[in-house]
Design a protein that fits this description.
With 214 residues, the protein is an all-beta fold. The protein folds into three domains: 61 residues, Beta Barrel (OB fold (Dihydrolipoamide Acetyltransferase, E2P)), CATH 2.40.50.140; 61 residues, Nucleic acid-binding proteins (OB fold (Dihydrolipoamide Acetyltransferase, E2P)), CATH 2.40.50; 58 residues, Nucleic acid-binding proteins (OB fold (Dihydrolipoamide Acetyltransferase, E2P)). Helices cover 0% and strands 44% of the residues. The chain contains no helices and 15 strands. The strands form three sheets. A five-stranded antiparallel β-sheet has the order 3-2-1-4-5, with no helix packed on it. A five-stranded antiparallel β-sheet has the order 8-7-6-9-10, with no helix packed on it. The radius of gyration is 20 Å and the shape is elongated.
Length: 214
């Protein structure tokens, strides 16, 4: 099954004037095929039947299209992106693709401004089947069923910084807190990715983390 917003390994089905058409009819006969890889991304050497690893997203007409460009963010992941412009629909952010990604006003934790960077989550809108970003990141995190334990090494993404400490995203799944008095690096900023450790899991499943090995 071809996944929008992720990398897919697809076969070259045919060569046309507009580019290569890709798909996996043998392994996924009922799936979507004829995914266009435009001419500007076509490799210099190829044969029909060759496999290519491509990123699949939706073009300006909301059709699945393939590219060899590398996006700054993948489906169901977090990243710090820059706002290119804002209009009556929402904010549009640079994510490495030709078409900027939309952050609707209702998905903005606070009004976004052109030129500024914000931590966002990329998801597939079920109503429109479009890729959309949101800076209301907490709705995509849960500490109800934890997948980590004390002492475990984890990946942290800095969510935002408060007077108490640094709020972090743990393994792109859970919320955690890194206390300020335990941080000796004053260059840490929102969107930074760090290696950390689970220091303490409270009875209410709130998590304290540390940058030092437990």
């Amino acid at each position: 099954m071809i996944q929008i917003g992720k990398y897919n390994t697809l076969k070259i089905l045919r060569d046309t004037k507009v580019g290569l058409f890709l798909g996996n009819p043998d392994t996924d006969p009922e799936g979507v095929h004829d995914i266009l890889l435009p001419n500007k991304y076509v490799p210099h050497q190829f044969e029909i039947g060759d496999e290519l690893t491509v990123f699949v997203y939706l073009d300006h007409e909301e059709r699945p299209v393939a590219t060899l460009l590398e996006p700054y963010i993948l489906l169901n992941e977090f990243a710090l992106l820059r706002v290119n412009y804002v209009n009556q629909v929402g904010a549009f952010m640079d994510w490495g693709m030709e078409k900027d990604i939309l952050v609707p006003f209702k998905e903005q934790a606070r009004p976004m401004e052109k030129g500024k960077r914000y931590l966002v989550y990329l998801y597939l809108d079920e109503k429109t089947n479009r890729l959309v970003a949101s800076s209301k990141t907490n709705q995509f995190l849960s500490n109800e069923n934890l997948t980590v334990e004390r002492g475990e090494e984890v990946e942290l993404i800095v969510s935002h910084i408060t007077e108490i400490g640094i709020n972090v995203i743990i393994n792109e799944k859970h919320k955690g807190l890194l206390y300020k008095d335990e941080v000796y690096d004053d260059t840490i900023r929102t969107g930074d990715r760090l290696r950390g450790y689970i220091k303490h899991i409270r009875p209410d499943n709130k998590i304290d983390v540390s940058l030092e090995k437990i």
